[in-house]
């Protein structure tokens, strides 16, 4: 098993945001997908992926359809994806993915969290290089042989594949998302969910007290409505 497997296992054991927050994130993803490629999922691959994720998160179909309809309205504000970087106490690098309709508000909020928790907000590129930007796909395990599938999908960019209790998970570089999505659809393999993650290249071990300091900052950041994902280099 490789880094993606260990990363996934650690994040799965970690607390996760409430269902309401998950739905909010998916709603923003729908708006960005519709604004980018239109409301027709058949012709909008990004929207197809978001709808699959909504289904995996048990988001009601009515909510999804409402979000698509709302996103199609010209008066609906679009969300801009903005990346923030910095350091928590004890030298832990933090990478924050946001989706915001008011960049000034988001910048001010993120900066305040770092300041209040003895962290340091960094400049663009200051920690991003410490993380590998990856994409992932989850498919049903039934009828699939992991080893055979791995050999077949290498040509499309898949670097790591493993099975767990929820199916088969594939990891690849960020740039391979479109090729893998297209190949799975061509093979009529159901995509249960897909997404992007940033996997730290190196993690740092900290004491229990130091971990509490870092967690305090992480919790403040994760509670912000504009924040979509938070990644860090602390060993979990």
Description:
The protein contains eight helices and eight strands, in the order ααααββαββαββαβαβ. It is of the alpha+beta class and 236 residues long. The strands form two sheets. It has a four-stranded antiparallel sheet with strand order 3-1-2-8. The chain has a four-stranded antiparallel sheet with strand order 5-6-4-7, sandwiched between helices.
The Cα radius of gyration reads: 18 Å
Average predicted local confidence, pLDDT? 91
What characterizes the major β-sheet?
4 strands, antiparallel
What's the number of extended β-strand segments?
8
Helix content percent band: 40-55%
Count of helix runs: 8
Give the helix/strand class. alpha+beta
Sheet with the most strands: spatial strand order? 3-1-2-8
How large a portion of the residues is in β-strands, by DSSP E?
15-25%
Distance between the termini: 17 Å
Spans of 5+ residues with little confidence (pLDDT < 50)? none
Instruction: Output the helix-strand order.
Output: HHHHEEHEEHEEHEHE
Shape: globular
